Amino acid sequence: MNRRELLKMITVATGTALVGGNSLLAFSALGEPDRGFSDADIERLNELAETILPRTDTPGAKDAEVGAFMTVFVSACYTPQERSLFRHGLAQIEARSRAAHGRGFLELDDEQRRALVVELDREAKAQVEASGEPHYFTLMKQLTLFGFFTSEVGATQVLRYEATPGRYDGCTPYEEGEPAWATT
Asked: Percentage of the chain surpassing pLDDT 90?
């Protein structure tokens, strides 16, 4: 799977183009700017990402440290409006969790987290269909998928990985149901 195919997959899964994708090629963690996210924010993002892509017989989003990836990507690639929407969403998830269950997102059990994520996903899809504007959950879901499948864990333990340059084989056999290929 190449980067273009991954972006198409994320678009289909979330119903909208990757937010911040136009600055994707310029992304770099060099310099480590002050991201303005706390350790608790990163932990909350990791748990949200793990709810979206849980560990099964393959690694989950927490194994790829997707929460930390999100903070870097949001800080380096999102516009100020997108960053504001993302941060607002992080606060909204916490507020909705407290309103519905009387405790923060990190204190919810797996079933309560899944129910909240399903509700947010439904809302996000409805908002995109109605207005074309991204919902904060769309940004979080996109970054979960992108961060996981471009991580070492996602590329080497979930996708089939072959380092490039490697031998070119233009006609590689593929069996239905096999994982897609990851290339660098």
From this structure: 61
Q: Look up residue 127 and give its two tokens.
A: 């908002």
Label residue 158 by pLDDT band (50, 70, 90).
confident
Instruction: Say whether the peptide bond before residue 165 is cis (omega within 30 degrees of 0).
Output: yes
Question: What are the φ/ψ torsions at residue 136 (nearest 5 degrees)?
Answer: -60, -35
pLDDT at residue 136 tops 50: yes
Angle (CA) 17 19 21, round 5°: 85
CB count in 10 Å sphere of residue 94: 17
For residues 57 and 78, the answer to whether their CB atoms sit within 8 Å is no
Nearest CA-CA partner of 70 in 94, 95, 92, 48: 48
Sign of the C-alpha dihedral computed for residues 90, 57, 4 and 9 taken in this order: negative
